[in-house]
Every structure is written in structure tokens, then in C-alpha cells.
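Weekly modeling sync, notes
Attendees: S.R. (lead), two postdocs, one rotation student

Agenda item 3: backlog of single-chain predictions. S.R. asked that every request posted to the team notebook include the full sequence so nobody has to chase files. The rotation student volunteered to paste the first one in as an example of the format we agreed on. Action items at the bottom.

Example entry:
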Amino acid sequence: MLPIFRNAERTSNDNGASATQPAEGNPPVDPLLQVTGAGSDEPVNVPTIEASDSTFSDGSDLHEGKYFNTKKDLKRKLSDIAMKGNFEFRTRKSNQSLWVIECIDPNCSWRLRASKIVPESTKFVIRKYVGVHSCSLLNRNANHRQATYVVIGEQVAPQYVGVEKGPGPKGVQTFARTELGAQISYYKAWRGRKHAHTLIRGSPEQSFHVPPSYFHMLEKLNPGTVTRIEVDGESRFKYLFLAFGVAIRGFRYMRKVVGIDGTFLKGQYRGVLLVATAQDGNGQCYPLAWGIVDSENEDAWSWFLTQLKEIIGDTDELALISDRAPSIKKAISTVFEKAHHGACAWHVAQNIKNKFKCADIMGSYWSAVNAYRCEDFTGYMIEISNRYPRVAKYLENEVGFEKWSRCHYPGLRYNITMTNMFESLNSMLVNARDFPYVALLDVIQEKMSKWWNDRRIVATAITTPLTPSRESELRPRFAQSNGRHTSQLNPITYHVKGGELEGVVDIFNKTCTCKEFDIDKLPCVHAVAAAHHAQVSVYSLVSPYYTKEYYLLAYGETIYPVGSQSQWDVPNEVVTRIVLPREVKEKKRGRPKTSRFPSVGEFRKRKNRCGKCGAYGHYKKKCNSQTGSTEGNPPTNVPG
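Predicted structure, as returned to the notebook:
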């Protein structure tokens, strides 16, 4: 409850003279507490304020002579006071050098007059101020005009600093009610949240003007970084490309398998975020390059892949894995002449379930995907063909065995059959995809800097020759190799018997007839037994991509942030480069879409909801619930 005003204190007047304290009874009319009427320079006398229980203070620390750097700061302060005091005020007169306000009740004594110190200054000073209300409580209003979305956004903005998500509209409503004493609508809370995002992360329009300077600083602080900005004939933004020099150099210590994919952005100007990522020796995603384009079309993919080709090259050892989108397939075939293109096995599986409604065949399909030997693959395909001939024809003719099968792939894709490494990046940026472009790039840089540092620490602490995941994969093979019988065929070839499958191992060329050693480049059980028989270290047979040395070299450098924009040192020709926002289609009615469209080969299963218990996954007829909801009552087991 606001304190009851009983004895108003006087402050010094404009001439520095000290004012007298009110005597007992009614205080005299103070000629200094006069405000100028709207549209007139004639002073208006402030009504005499009687010290009684019907008056109360606004509870603020304002006083005559208090300074504010700008008029905006003063208005923000008064809006905060009004919201917390549950009262409203209106403007009597306002221009660049003067601001006069009063309580919304014309009979109330509360009012304020402020003006510039001198005409040339931006600072405002309170000239006259009566902080006492004499209006009725009927005029108190929690949903008042001072609780604008701008004020709400400015107040709640600190809660979005250093976080990706922050409070949603309902959280902003709660903040306004508990911290500001204001009742606001959901829509005003949504606009306030959006304004807070703009204050912290910049406006969407600004994200097109800043990238040239932002990229200049990235290249300056991170040597070897490659950036590109493409504009159309009218200097409107088309594409951008970013690859950190640290990641480019670290790719030398990665297996030459790159997954490429895209995900749509949710900001005002939409667009699509493209990414090319490898996988390190510990099985973790290793982002190589990022791009922002208008949509996933052939021109955009061709431009992005052309930039990617400049940093990773085009060799027979390179494998590119993606979904089966026609634009990606055509762009890869156009840009990369030597690299091999493979399809993501997961997307192919989803497409099979969507087109042929045969989820029960997925076990045989995944066995065929992961088969190392063509003999085993043929057996699984016979199972599929016997049950679903159309599926077998689809996999062979429309998709092609060489695109999704491990044993038929013409290049070397190791044990990487899916682009799930990209999905982890997609989930990491699920909130940042709503940010303006530069703020999104900031999040990417921050995440990559953290990953590089964390993984460098892990790599330094490793005490084994291999990365932790490969070491844990290799150790069980030592125990399995103990029961195998090994015989030497020649100085480099060994025959290993025992178990379900025999193997002939060439420890010089690092091959085995089981093909597991050939494809994964990690010793199989037969190779481990042969190395033990030949008294050769099994670690000498492992690909260097799985070693601690390569893992440490891949993350040995640091990715540096660009810092505050006020600290940038950018040449004038970069600052003055014009990049205009691209044209966007007219905004559709309703809530903006935030969930992505399924990509080619992806299928989303619709969940069934029970009308009896409210749970998902079954129908009412198959419900085993003993106590379902009765007619007229809501379900008793509804999630959330």
C-alpha cells in the first residue's frame, strides 16, 4: 500500500531560495507549484492540498531539480511510477524542450512539469512537481495507458540477456503483474517480448546492414575465416556464407564425410539456414560451414556448395550425405565432379513407411543398410522382396543400392549412414532460429567456441591412444578375439577361425574378408586376433582419424567472438557497403508457423488420442483404463 501523504515537504525554488514548511492546518498556496496550461504560457495555479486521509503520495523519489539525461529517460521513469502506483496520467503539453503532465482525474492535485536545462542540451530537469494524489480510488487502474508494449519490453529486456529463449508472452504477463503492478493482454505481452528481443539482439532490418562489418571482424580475429555475402542487382540480400578458419584447418583431421542439410528460419525475413558438418573421431558433429539463403532451391544450394568446395576441395575420398531433395541432388552433381553422393538412410526409411505403409519391414531394411558384406545384404533384400516386392524395387531402382547401402557405396563413408549429426545442430538452434541473422550468427559462434574449448579439455585429459568412443568400441573385441584360432598364411596375411564368421586379415593393407575392417577403418575381431598373433600393436592398425593426436589437433585452436559493436575497427569501405533487406511475401494471417515442413523422405506419424482416458497412442475401443471420463466431464488423463 502506498504511504498516506500527511505533511508535504517543500523543496528549493528555481532561484535557490528555501521554501517554508506548511503550517498546521491548511498549507498556503505555493506560487512555484504552477504549471503551464496546454497551448498557453499562462500559469495555472495548483489546488491547495489538504493534509488528510484522502490524499496519498505516488511513492516515488522524484523531486524538483532532479535531472534526467533525456526526455525518454524521464518518460520511462514516470511510466514505471504510474504502473506501480496503479494510476494514469495524461499529457497537457509536450514538445522537444517541454513536458507537462497531470493525473487523468482533472480534480487531482498530482502533476509534473519538466523542461530542458538549456535549449542546446538533451538533459531534462523537473521544474515543478506535486507527487500527491487527491483523486478517488475509483480512478486506480492496473490496465492503464502507461503500460505500453515499449515500456514492458524495456523493463523485461534484462531477462533475455545471455539466454536464447527467455520468458514467453505468458511469462511477460506474469512479470508485468508482479514487478510492475500492471495487467496486460497476451498480445501486448507478445509485442513487449518482441520489443525486448529487438533491444537485446537488434532489429531484423539491422541484421542486413551489419553483416559486412561483422564478417570483417570475424576474419580479423579468426585468421583463415571465409565469409561471403551475395546481393542482387538492387543490392538486396540473397545469400551469406561463413566458415571459421579454425574449422577449415581442423577438417584435415576429420574423416572426409560431410553431411549437408537445411532448416527454415522463423524470423521476420524467414530464409533457410544451411550447414555442412563432418564428424570427429569421437563421433561428435563438427560444423564446417554455415549459410543463409532464401529457400532450398537449386540456385541457393549450388551457390552454397560452390563456396564449400573452395574450402574442402573435390576428391574421390570425399563423401557427401544428404536427404533426397531434388535440388540438393542436382546441385551436388553440378558442383562436385569427383565426390560421391550418398542418401541419408533414415530419410529413406521414413519415405518407405510413408509410401508403402510397411513399418514391420524396417528391421530387415536396417540390417541391409548396415551390412558390411554384399552376401549378407542380398539375404536381407530377399526378405524384403518376398514380403514387399514394391519396396525392393523402390530401393533398387528409384533410390539405388549405392546411395544408401554401406557395402555398395562406391566411396568411403565409414560408419556414417545418416545425417543425424545435423539434427543435433538443428535442435541446438531451435530457439535461435527466431533471431535476426547477426544474432543467430552470434549464437553459432558462441556455441562453436564452447564446443572447441570443452572438447580440447577432454582431448587433453585422454590417457589412451584413441578417443573415448573408439576405445570403448575396440576394447570388447579384445575379449572376443581370445577364443579365435589364428594361423599365418604369409608375412602379412592371417587366417582367423572361430565365432560365426571366419576372416582373412591383411595387416599391411588393413583389410579383412568380413569387410568391417575395410569400411570402418577400425580393427574388427579378426584383425585384433591377427595383430595379437603377429605381435603387432592393434593401435597401429587404427585409422589416425580415431586417435587422440588427431582429436587434439582438430580442436587445438580457439574461435574468438567479435565483441561489442562499439569496439569494432572496420574500414570505411566496409561500413558503407549497402546491403538492403530482401523482399518478403505478404505476411499471412494468423499465428506465424514455427514448426518445419517434413523434408523429402521424412514422415510424421499422427498420434491417436483416446476419447475415454485422454491418453495418446490408442483408440477408445482398445482403452484399458478402468475409470474414464464421463459425458460432460473433461478427460482425466490429458497430458500437460
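Discussion: group reviewed the output briefly. DSSP finds 21 helices and 20 strands in the chain.
Action items: rotation student to repeat for the remaining queue; S.R. to check formatting next week.
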